[in-house]
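Anyone else keep sequences and structure tokens together like this?

Example one:
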Amino acid sequence: MKAVLDESRANASPGDASPGNPSIAKKNRFLHNVKRDAWLYLLLLLPFAYILIFKYAPIYGVIMAFQDYNIFAGISGSEWVGLDVFRFIFGQDSFYRALKNTLVLNVYDLIAGFPAPIILAILLHEVRMARLKKITQTVLYLPHFLSWVIIGGMVYLMFSNGGMVNTFLASLGAGKIEFLSQKIPWLVTYISVGVWQHIGWGTIIYLAAMTGINKELYEASDIDGCTRLRKIWHITLPGIKSTINILLILQIGRMVSIGFDRPFVMGNSLVSDYSDVISTFVYRVGISSGDFSQATAVGLFQSVVGLILLLAANYIAKKLGEDGIW
């Protein structure tokens, strides 16, 4: 028997799948896994195709930032101008005003909007009545699904000079507040409405993180006689610290990016010095004027600076001993 096995091993080719040939064994194992989970891999095709078509394919269009792009000549036929488009953009005062407004509004959003869902999630986590908790969550989530066009109409009806709030103040004998036409009132309105719109959606993430906290920790704290504030400080917050770190890093990475709809809908000519941001600047000088090279160059600038901020925030978090994105 031993002689037969020795002869079989001697005649075996190097490519045979055997413990002595790990590459072939690994390949066969991969094919086996693909065959076993074929339907799961098939389900991945749709999101994979979406990422390829809508995320990676448009990267080719970045070339327009370095061209005097002509919509009729296309990318291949447009004249190459190098960094001239960037020099032109960086030479405009309106660009720096838009950049400053973008940073200012995002910083205010970070200060007011980032802690709000954390506080709300903790309050909801402490609610013991399940029915009240569900109703409250549903009411708070609803604004996230409203279009900013609808929210803008609501803001105008409530905070304009003849709106509900000023009408109520007038009935009390108080003076009207220019919510939508003066800098400070407009900023307060802009930030407050943004927090109201996003707070419910952010709460979902933190409540989901809280479900992963070991319940025995709360039971042990009850035995030790800890108050609710003690449990929040020593159990709940440490339990969601990694989630807070990751979301904070991502938020910092978006400091030079801002949505178009919110400042466009809530802004007006009276507060354009404060509401004109990068996205409205791109719309005005790039899309409306048909200068797609400028629009692409500003978008590329945002992406590069956003990536630098993201990497810097992640690096600082890791240096401080906190959890990063990777």
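And example two:
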Amino acid sequence: MKPSYTLRQMTLYALKLGAIGFGGPVALVGYMHRDLVEDRRWLTEADYKEGLTLAQLAPGPLAAQLAIYLGYCHYGVLGATLVGIAFALPSFLMVLAIGWTYMFYGGLPWMQAIFYSVGAAIIGIIARSAQRLTIRTVGKDALLWVIYLTLAATTFLTENESIPLILLGGLTAWLVVAPPSGLKRTRRIALPVAVVAMVVAGIIVFAAHRSESSEIVASGATGASFGVLWDIFWYFSKAGAFVFGSGLAIVPFLFGGVIKQFQWLTEQQFLDAVAVAMITPGPVVITTGFIGYLVAGFVGACVAAVATFFPCYLFTILPAPFMRKHGSHPAIVAAVAGVTAAATGAIAGAVIVLGKRSIVDAPTAMIALTTYAILWKTKRVPEPVIIVAAGLLGPVIKSLAVG
């Protein structure tokens, strides 16, 4: 059946959504349903649900993957490519502009004052997001709680996200909830064995981190050399391949590598990068472009952004035919639930780690708590509005402190 819209129309829509789409992944996927299914009727409800299911099951930022899939529906790989680029381009250009400003004026007191308060507001936002994700992804499931708490504890203690432990969470959930036919007889003992296995794995990860902590080597590079660009490409490719559901899932992974492993940024610069991603529209993972700019300029920003979104792109267009047939299989659903619970636990652990750095006094504690309370009590206040308000408050607080 011939589509009722052109590829140009869909690409322009993605460009517009990427430029004005505030509110995070949940809001963005809601806008797509309202605009493309309900109002314009370019896509059917079935098309949308297939794309949303794939975006939830496969690793990658939710809104970006859904946009890519909807571009793929009627115009194949070309549609997916153009829509994906259009969706991410506006926020990428914005973070480049902010990155340039940050590099030239980041040492000035007024900009330091802005990020002083914005960093505290970010903690409140991430804390509330982690709470919502926990309720939605873990619920009352005992096994998922074990996976969640294991990742939260190891992320907090090691200040790093363990990808093998996240994958183990998915494998554990699969073997317990929907085991292969040959293992169904052992189902009665599967849960206690899985609990012990997850806890032991967490202890091993923590012990390995302690033994290797003195061997971390920093690159310390700030130029756009080939070696630095390769490190950026390889590292952010891995980051993009392990973002499940919310773009915030990339935060704990980036914290461990950007600060501790490569030492590209300071802790305050990292919090500033997260803040930049939150105040710009489009996908949260665009923070990688800002980080890439700080490390290696314009080329570094381009490499980081492409590396982050390329896995998301592949995970959307390659498994699409398979997911249409088998996306509801119990084994796949169980494994994804385990991985998502693990990723959510890592976010929760990262909230504590980042909070220790950004909440440094009574004013920042008050800003973080107020932000959390606003988001808890109402959905009418957009997150970017809170961040802008916090940014305006920072210089006031600093001027009063000096006075």
